[in-house]
Predict the structure.
Amino acid sequence: MTAIVLRSMYLSAFLLVMAVAPGRAFAQAAFTADADFASEDPSGCVSTEVFVFARRGGSAPSIADVKISEIDNCNEREVLTAHGRAKLKGNELRFDSRSRTASLNATIEMVDERSNERFDVVAQLTWKASAQAVTAVRNTDMEEPGRIVRRERPMKKTFNVAKSSGTILRGEHNFIPGRATDAGIVLISD
């Protein structure tokens, strides 16, 4: 499963459960950052894919959402499929005012979807815009994975393609040893 397929699965899930509800106008700007990571272990057998979504501001609480999938391709078995979401506090998620950079430093409780085992990961990620921003006016907004809200008034969304890197650690194990395969930062405002 590639990182793009994982992102497509997330977006498809958002559309299937599209909880489109009337929303309020933004009292303040909202920022989101997301990134997809894909890697293989040195043996070439175990492939890992990670999707990260983080949001701060607007009418929704600040959150980080992480999905991790590890597959042993040589033995044709799933090693790990885990999902976690955390409400963020203080400066755990930062954006610059122009949505050109972002950082996430938070502990997120994960749940293994096969065994229901709970474990923590420490996410330390940075995003930096790598291209000129694109702006569009829309009246829908993804407040968190699985929740799309329709706003009464259109809002301006400024999207920056970005480079993202860092670590997602479970003890000493880093699930993302390289740069993101796809990443972005979005500024949402009235």
